[in-house]
């Protein structure tokens, strides 16, 4: 199991002047700096390496309460202040999957190191690694709190980009001019609503973590970075809420169209029924089997009755048109 852990673990050490990326052949080689200018970013894929986590914690003299925290594989959102470090856990949406699955992500942060633990392989952090390697921007001049800010910002940016990409596709499929009261169109709307609910849930989860980070007081940890992240999450949540309202309006419009069509059908059937009621009445009278019905003996009685029926029909249609009932 230790070899699997080592295969899934790497460390980037950096300062203003230096950069180094390493893998390991033994857990004893994992050293998290404390009190130096060098910042370590340790990254592990997988959350089931409990014994290996314990070794790393003990040999680096980290708070042993981390062992208990890391043993729970399904944390809710938490920001816990320990001895000169933070334990942060949140669930992150995997946007590469069309099903929008999620994964547990854990950050253990002090002033001079950051340990990120991800449930599944793959992340949105390659651009940060490139900036560290190429010494681009100010990241190598900052401490681990700024690295945490960039990691969280990368997650939010990925949410924003994925949301906008899906919003464009959705706008094409669910354009107002293409609204149709069909099961297929309704299914597309409901599918998009479910995607948005997943995005909103993940974004609000991340916002909750950021709000907690804003209230943290720890040496070497600047909380000013996280106000910007909170604004980004608020903007994304506002965009999601706006689109949800639009989709709800489209669903209401579909129901209105269906109701209107049903009313038109019922109106047509009602008008036809009203036209045929007097005709049925006349036919019923002269269809009775009484022997002495005077009109039955009249030579032109049949044609007169047909004429009356035609006149009644014309009069009914004229009256309905005058009332603008059709």
Can you walk me through this structure?
The chain is of the alpha+beta class. It has two domains: 2-255, 2-Layer Sandwich (Beta Polymerase, domain 2); 261-322, Methane Monooxygenase Hydroxylase, Chain G, domain 1 (Up-down Bundle), CATH 1.20.58. It is 54% helix and 14% strand. The chain has eight helices and seven strands. It has helices at 2-7, 50-59, 65-71, 126-134, 144-173, 183-214, 225-285, 301-322; strands at residues 9-14, 19-22, 39-45, 78-82, 85-93, 102-109, 113-118. Strands 2-1-3-7-6-5-4 form a seven-stranded mixed sheet, with helices on both faces. The longest helix is centred in the last third of the chain and has 61 residues, at 225-285. The protein starts with a helix and ends with a helix. The model has no long low-confidence stretch (mean pLDDT 84). This is CorA family divalent cation transporter. It comes from Polaribacter marinaquae. It is a multi-pass membrane protein.
Summarize the structure.
With 326 residues, the chain is an alpha+beta fold. The chain has helices at 2-7, 50-59, 65-71, 126-134, 144-173, 183-214, 225-285, 301-322, and strands at 9-14, 19-22, 39-45, 78-82, 85-93, 102-109, 113-118.
Low-pLDDT stretches are none
User: Could you say how many structural domains there are in total?
Assistant: 2
> How many angstroms separate the termini?
79 Å
Total strands: the figure is: 7
* Helical proportion, percent range: 40-55%
What's the helix-strand series?
Answer: HEEEHHEEEEHHHHH
Major β-sheet annotation = 7 strands, mixed
Query: What is the CATH third-level topology name of the largest domain?
Result: Beta Polymerase, domain 2
């Amino acid at each position: 199991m230790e070899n699997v852990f080592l295969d899934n673990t790497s460390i980037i050490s950096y300062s203003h002047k230096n950069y180094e990326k390493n893998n390991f052949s033994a857990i004893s080689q994992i050293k998290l700096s404390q009190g130096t200018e060098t910042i370590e970013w340790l990254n592990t894929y997988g959350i089931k390496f409990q014994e290996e986590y314990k070794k790393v914690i003990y040999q680096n003299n980290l708070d042993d309460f981390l062992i208990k925290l890391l043993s729970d594989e399904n944390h809710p959102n938490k920001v816990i202040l320990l001895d000169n470090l933070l334990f942060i856990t949140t669930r992150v949406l995997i946007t590469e999957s069309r099903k929008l699955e999620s994964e547990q992500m854990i950050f253990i942060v002090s002033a001079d190191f950051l340990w990120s633990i991800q449930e599944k392989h793959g992340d949105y952090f390659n651009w940060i690694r490139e900036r560290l390697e190429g010494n681009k921007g100010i990241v190598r001049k900052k401490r681990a709190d700024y690295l945490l800010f960039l990691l969280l910002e990368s997650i939010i940016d990925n949410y924003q980009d994925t949301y906008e990409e899906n919003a464009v596709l959705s706008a094409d499929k669910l354009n107002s001019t293409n609204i149709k009261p069909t099961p297929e169109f309704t299914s597309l709307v409901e599918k998009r609503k479910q995607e948005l609910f997943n995005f909103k849930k993940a974004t609000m989860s991340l916002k909750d973590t950021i709000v907690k980070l804003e209230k943290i007081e720890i040496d070497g940890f600047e909380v000013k970075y996280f106000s910007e992240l909170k604004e980004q999450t608020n903007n994304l949540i506002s965009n999601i809420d706006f689109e949800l309202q639009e989709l709800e309006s489209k669903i209401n419009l579909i129901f209105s169209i269906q109701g209107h069509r049903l009313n038109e059908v019922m109106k047509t059937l009602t008008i036809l029924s009203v036209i045929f009621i007097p005709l049925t009445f006349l036919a019923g009278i002269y269809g009775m089997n009484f022997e002495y019905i005077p009109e039955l003996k009249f030579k032109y009685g049949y044609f007169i009755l047909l004429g009356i029926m035609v006149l009644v029909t014309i009069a009914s249609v004229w009256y309905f048109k005058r009332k603008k009932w059709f």
